[in-house]
Amino acid sequence: MPLRPPLDRRAVLTGGATGVLGLTLSGCAAFPASSRPHQTVWTFDRLTDIGGVQTTVEGAPALIDSPYGRAVRFDGVDDALFIAEHPLAGAETFTFEAIFRPDGGAFEQRWFHLAEEAPPGQPPSQTRFLFEIRVVQDRWYLDAFTRGPGYNHTLIFPERLHPCGQWHHVAQTFDGTTYRAYVDGVLQGEAPLAFKPQGPGRASVGCRINRLNYFNGAVRQARFTPAALPPERFTMR
């Protein structure tokens, strides 16, 4: 399924914003104006202040051109961005989306990590969201993961392979009962989940937050919504 050019907004967006092609911001039409969800968009067209948030660069990620505007390319060795925010902290339901291009390489790549941080003096928190991929020759499959108090679930489906070297949209959603994962708007799988909101923290892009499993490919954009959007409301639409 081809991607449409995604929203080109860098900071926090609300329901009344207008996106590409003059369309109302994807997702907002599904909600009454009084209850439209607050949305955050991170556009990776720079290496500093992603989404207006403090961003630390490690390695040498590079800005490249993509069909949707500038994107950040990671080399799969030591390139990463660390962003001082967990944009889904406090959300009881959610949609976590990203537009990216996996370019092959190592089998296991943990390329987008949202991590809760424990208060000072407490043991490190294991609560988190992850987008990962598994690479099989020139194809890949999605691993969507979330963990927190009383829940720990992976949505991974090795039979659902996708081509490397192309731009794709991925999403994970939770509607209050069911956790779902999508690639290019197509459901990969789902499971019940006893989800609890996660606390404030930070994010890494290009590797796991403890600097493991680096990503070989590019990331253009991510969007975070504290509501479960249907596929027709995803960024790519």
Number of helices: 0
CATH topology call: Jelly Rolls
Given helix and strand content, the structural type is mainly beta
Could you say how many structural domains there are in total?
A: 1
Order of helices and strands: EEEEEEEEEEEEEEEEE
Could you say which overall geometry the principal axes of the C-alpha atoms support?
globular
What is the beta-strand fraction? over 45%
Supply Rg: 16 Å
Task: Report what the structure shows.
There is one protein chain. With 237 residues, the chain is mostly beta strands. It has one domain: Sandwich (Jelly Rolls). The chain has no helices and 17 strands. It has strands at 12-13, 39-43, 55-58, 62-66, 69-75, 80-83, 94-102, 108-116, 128-136, 139-148, 151-156, 162-163, 168-174, 178-183, 186-192, 201-205, 216-225. The strands form two sheets. Strands 1, 2, 4, 5, 7, 13, 14, 15 and 17 form a nine-stranded antiparallel sheet that branches. Strands 3, 6, 8, 9, 10, 11, 12 and 16 form an eight-stranded antiparallel sheet that branches. Strand 14 (178-183) and strand 15 form a beta hairpin. The termini are close together.
